[in-house]
Specification:
heterodimer, A: 316 residues, two-stranded antiparallel ribbon, 2 strands, globular, B: 209 residues, mainly alpha
């Protein structure tokens, strides 16, 4: 069975190559810091399972120290806009083929490869189909780019470094926040906040309970950066005791709409870095919070819709 | 959250928050570092998205964004509003079917944002940098809104299974299909609200000539 392991190795090799290329990039005055940062990240992907918990923790600390000292931006050799226009004319729509191959191969893995069994065992780990499919899709796209568009693989990795340096430390932030969530759980932060919240809200009316639950989900998600962390806390603190036990509401509709109220919070918070901060860096926005600014009005309107909807359907 | 308000490197803030909450929760500093390292290692999958960057970079080098722009300018009906609304809808529907299509690195940066920008250029003279940034931010937002408010319609998504498992722990049996059906009204409202905002935004872009 193919698991997630080879995909981690692929990522480790990619970051390792980027580290070497960073070290050789004299246009970047901070090239050694970039090389160190991506090099350590390569170590994490290649050998993370052998370093032990404390070893991994120290690796993270060193990475953070290098990032806090300040990373530079490498300038890999790339094409000018005019060259790109000419190249785009030359290749025509064939240029879209590798780009479309990325989602198509990922979908293919999710739908077809997961059905394949060899000697009674699945070919790829059913729990990891999307990520394994993504790894396969990226390799497919690179090979298609090499064959159809004559883009050398080494040059492609160097172009990847151009985008990676644009992200800088923001590339690691989502993973760091996931790890922070795990520490919060161990330390019992969620339960502590939940206890305070459930004592603070008045349990007078059905409407007040619904507002407290939906708004609580959104706010708590914004603080934690993740609706999954907020859901158990708020549902134990407010949802089950008030909406379900006291007012006899339907727990299924309440939970479904409650989770979606949490997602409204996700739209508004820098803690959900992979959705909100990373694209701002990836698109070169001047305002780091530009994406959040666009999403806040939708989040507020949709949260109000969720409250009305929950009130209407939960107490049928 | 407070750390983001201060202008400190967010990675340092995350480490500080982990240490503070861990120590407040009664752990030794060394144990907090180990717990963080363990969780960091287990969550490596979060960063696998970056595997697409070499392919996307190579395609950009070959002129992908330029080709996407040229194509959009040729299509008569293409506008900022139509591109972003169609993408929002397609993202919602595919994710509701459990199909991994879309994403900030693999769709928005190489295709959707340049297409929307090109469509705006074709209609508005002298687009300002602020307007370009706003168009790009809207492209990223369409991806997020579509993904968040489509995924819970898919029965086997993580959040549905989390709800089912949590309710089961509390003695309540929930049918995943019921949970996913209750995600549909919000999904429809999300499309209506966000598409409406895209259309409004695109109109204002056109007016500032």
């Amino acid at each position: 069975m193919i698991g997630i392991g080879p995909v981690y190795v692929l990522a480790g090799l990619m970051f390792g190559a980027m580290a070497l290329m960073s070290a050789r990039d004299r246009s970047n005055p901070r090239r050694w810091r970039n090389a160190g940062f991506w090099g350590l990240y390569a170590v994490s992907f290649l050998f993370g399972d052998f370093l032990g918990d404390l070893g991994n923790g120290i690796l993270v600390l060193v990475m953070v120290a290098v990032a806090a000292a300040g990373l530079g931006i490498g300038r890999p050799q790339t094409t000018t806009p005019d060259e790109r226009r000419l190249s785009a004319r030359k290749f025509g729509n064939a240029i879209f083929a590798p780009a479309l191959a990325i989602p198509l191969v990922t979908i293919f893995a999710a739908l077809v490869l997961r059905q394949i069994f060899i000697a009674g065992r699945p070919l790829i780990d059913p729990a990891q189909t999307t990520l394994i499919g993504l790894g396969l899709a990226c390799v497919t796209a690179l090979v298609m780019g090499r064959v159809l568009l004559k883009q050398r693989i080494i040059a492609a990795v160097d172009e990847g470094r151009r985008l990676m340096d644009l992200l800088g430390w923001a590339a690691v932030l989502p993973q760091m926040l996931s790890a922070l969530g795990a520490v919060f759980t161990i330390a019992g932060v969620g339960t502590a906040i939940g206890q305070v919240a459930s004592q603070a809200i008045p349990g007078g009316s059905r409407a007040a309970a619904v507002i407290a639950y939906a708004l609580g989900m959104a706010l708590f998600t914004a603080v934690m950066g993740n609706a999954f962390a907020a859901f158990p806390v708020l549902t134990i603190g407010i949802g089950l005791p008030l909406i379900v036990m006291k007012f006899h509401g339907d727990p299924v509709a309440m939970s479904a709409i409650g989770m979606l109220s949490g997602f409204c919070g996700t739209l508004t918070t820098p803690m959900a870095a992979n959705f909100n901060l990373v694209p701002a860096a990836l698109l070169g926005l001047k305002n780091r919070y530009g994406v959040i600014a666009v999403q806040i009005p939708t989040a507020i309107l949709l949260l109000m819709v969720n409250m009305v909807l929950m009130y209407a359907v939960v107490f049928r | 959250m407070l750390g983001f308000a201060a202008r400190v490197n967010p990675l340092l803030v995350v480490i500080a928050a982990a240490l503070a909450s861990g120590i407040a929760g009664g752990l030794e500093p060394g144990a907090v570092i180990a717990a963080f390292g363990k969780a960091f290692n287990e969550n490596r999958y979060v960063s696998l998205t970056w595997l697409v960057l070499p392919a996307i970079g190579a395609l950009e080098r070959a002129g992908l964004q330029q080709r996407a722009r040229e194509l959009i300018v040729k299509i008569r009906g293409a506008s900022v509003a139509s591109i972003l609304c169609i993408y929002l809808l397609v993202r919602q529907i595919t994710v509701a079917l459990g199909l991994p299509f879309g994403g900030q690195a693999s769709m928005v940066r190489p295709l959707i944002a340049p297409m929307a920008e090109a469509a705006a250029e074709a209609r508005v003279d002298g687009l300002t940098d602020a307007q370009r940034d706003a168009i790009r931010a809207h492209a990223a937002a369409a991806d997020n809104v579509g993904a968040f408010f489509g995924e819970d319609i898919f029965v086997a998504i993580g959040s549905i299974l989390l709800i089912k498992g949590f309710l089961a722990q509390n003695g309540i049996t929930a049918d995943p299909l019921q949970l996913s059906l209750w995600a549909i009204p919000t999904a429809v409202a999300a499309f209506a609200i966000h598409a409406g905002r895209i259309v409004f935004f695109a109109r204002r872009l056109g007016r500032r000539r």
